[in-house]
Amino acid sequence: MKSANIKKVPKENAYSSLFTGEDVTRQVFFPESKEYRINIVNFGKGVRNKLHTHDSEQIIMVLSGKGIVATEKEEKMVVAGDIVFVPAGEKHWHGAAKDSEFSHLYWFRAGSISTQIEK
């Protein structure tokens, strides 16, 4: 068995073309897992990821701040304690509201492929 504490896992810069800004860090949990990818992503105010899909289901748990999880058809404001299920293949994005930083924990199947749709 292995355990981790959110406060002790270091934050690393997570900037990539998937994000709308550079104020993004992530914390990686249990990279040795053969079945799951579990990370915390921390977004600066107004920063989000771009429209994308995963070929596996994704679960997002909001840890702090105020954010938005959106599909092509709807946008939901989310806050700490909210949990969102995103089916495999659904086009979506998520990130911080304009006036708030935002952190969420997510997990999906190890080896899952993410496809960025929005340029």
Radius of gyration: 13 Å
Helix fraction, binned, reads under 10%
Question: If you consult CATH, what is the topology?
Answer: Jelly Rolls
CATH architecture tag: Sandwich
Question: Mean pLDDT, as a whole number?
Answer: 96
The fraction of residues assigned to DSSP E strands is over 45%
Individual helix count: 0
Model regions low in confidence, pLDDT < 50 over at least 5 residues = none
Q: Can you tell me the CATH superfamily?
A: Jelly Rolls
Structural class: mainly beta
Give a short account of the largest sheet: 8 strands, antiparallel
Q: What top-tier CATH class fits best?
A: Mainly Beta
Number of strands: 10
Secondary-structure element series? EEEEEEEEEE
Distance between the termini: 41 Å
Shape assignment: globular
Number of domains: 1
Question: Topology, pairings included?
Answer:
Blueprint: E1 12-13, E2 24-29, E3 36-43, E4 52-54, E5 58-71, E6 75-79, E7 83-86, E8 92-96, E9 102-109, E10 114-116
